[in-house]
Amino acid sequence: MVDAKTSQSEDDVSTDAPVTRIALLGCGHVGSQVVRLLTERRAEVEAWAGTALELTGVAVKHPDIERSGVDPALITGDAAGLIEGADIVVEVMGGIEPARGLLLAAMERGASVVTANKALLAAHGPELYAAAAEAGVDLYFEAAVAGAIPIVRPLRESLVGDEIDSVMGIVNGTTNYILDEMTTRGLAFSDALAQAQELGYAEADPTADIEGDDAAAKAAILASLAFGAVVPGEAVHREGITMITPEDIKAAAAMGAVVKLVAVATRLDDGAVSVRVHPAMVPLGHPLAAVHGAENAVVVQARNAGRLMFLGAGAGGAPTASAVMGDLATVARNRCRGVHVPAMTVTQGGRIAAIDEAVTASFVSLVVRDEPGVLAKIATVFARHGVSVAEVRQNHSQTGRSAVLGVTTHASRDSQVTDTLSELSAMTQVVGGRIRRIRVEGS
Ligand SMILES: NC(=O)c1ccc[n+]([C@@H]2O[C@H](COP(=O)([O-])OP(=O)(O)OC[C@H]3O[C@@H](n4cnc5c(N)ncnc54)[C@H](OP(=O)(O)O)[C@@H]3O)[C@@H](O)[C@H]2O)c1
Q: Is 132 helix (H, G, I), strand (E, B) or coil?
């Protein structure tokens, strides 16, 4: 049966179509582009949504600043007042508070929400998802993960009839740019970072990017969607890229791989969810190895659909605003039809596995004495901890006294590799210097 609302013409918005009032919180890189698209694409979005759209105001921190392309009459410093009359609140201001309080208040009043705020969702997602369910409103957040790339909607809707085995992505453009420059131009980490800052790919304070925190927030959202589990941002194990050296990049190249900062979410045999962000050697044949510059990409392995890849701009005002507009159109349409979609479906208790339980292959680089029997001693330690060695490469020093061993392992539990490395580092008669380990993903 088709009801009167769903059978209405989708070609245009009739004069008696309902008006949807939109409050925009934030008018920075993303918000200003949302305002532009709301003007440029209004007719198409209204026709699709079946409702007229009225931007009732734009809340900012500094209302006295002039903003090109935005009607000054719309600007306000009173975000709390603005959301009172809104049907949909679009939050692109960032940060935790006041964004969290404003969105909770908006939903309690019956407004639907569109947000690009990954930090907020990683920290307070469950509270916000519950508030949306309680109020019977939509909470959409496509732009919170990987900017313009549609990945939230595929995980939340398109693949709901499938079973997801893993999600692996490059979800931070800044670190991908830095690692790509180190790989393709041989730059040191600090030089590549300085270049990223000059070009505007990295913030003046790049900590959240280079230490993996930004990627961890997105990994938490992806894992929650993929596995129907509550994954708080702080539960995501993270390692940044500050320790990656040109030697690591060369070692990766020697084994036909590139170093990437990856976000990985998998389900372990006992159903626990393993979520982590760390640098990894990715074989050249894997689609993520071909993701260059500041681009993002996510590879989803689904039981029935197989391998799916999503690639594109992970940030930037216009690309992110494009994702916000898609959400806005859908939420407006849902409201007209009197429906809402669950923000997050929690189907399992979702024990979050410790990093020790993760199962990955590893590359281990160590400096050893160049003398007979050393290789056997090293191999014995790996074997004692149940870590199977796939390949050993050896580079002799010019003096002939030491050699650099590059050991690639088969997939093993993280704790087994950690135990192996701590035993090796105690063997000071044989092993000297720092032992380096980089996980291998996607082989
Ligand atoms: N930029 C991207 O490429 C990108 C990509 C994906 C997701 N996101 C997410 O999108 C959100 C916005 O990012 P952005 O880059 O557009 O940030 P931005 O350029 O810093 O803009 C933030 C906007 O919010 C306003 N604002 C901040 N605090 C406020 C407060 N307490 N009350 C009212 N207004 C306030 C600011 O007002 P003033 O202008 O007066 O300072 C500004 O207009 C963040 O959650 C971010 O993580 C951004």
A: helix
DSSP classification of residue 157 = I
Fold assignment, 358-440: Alpha-Beta Plaits (3.30.70)
Query: What does the domain layout of the chain look like in residue ranges?
Result: 19-148+318-337, 161-313, 358-440
Ligand 1 atom at shortest distance from the alpha carbon of 118? 47
> How far is residue 414 from each of residues 27, 78, 185, 215, 343, measured CA to CA in Å?
44, 50, 32, 20, 33
Q: May I ask the CATH class of domain 161-313?
A: alpha beta
Residue 25 belongs to what H/E stretch? strand 19-25
Instruction: Provide the pLDDT for residue 400.
Output: 76
| Below-70 pLDDT ranges, the chain | 1-17, 349
Does CATH number 3.40.50.720 belong to domain 19-148+318-337? yes
Give tens-digit pLDDT for 23-57. Answer: 999 999 999 999 999 999 999 999 999 999 999 99
Atom 31 (ligand 1) nearest CA: 61
What b/e sequence results for 65-90 when a residue is b if at least 16 CB atoms lie within 10 Å of its CB, and e otherwise? eebeebeeebbeeebeebbeebbbbb
From 61, 118, 218, 377, active-site residue = 218
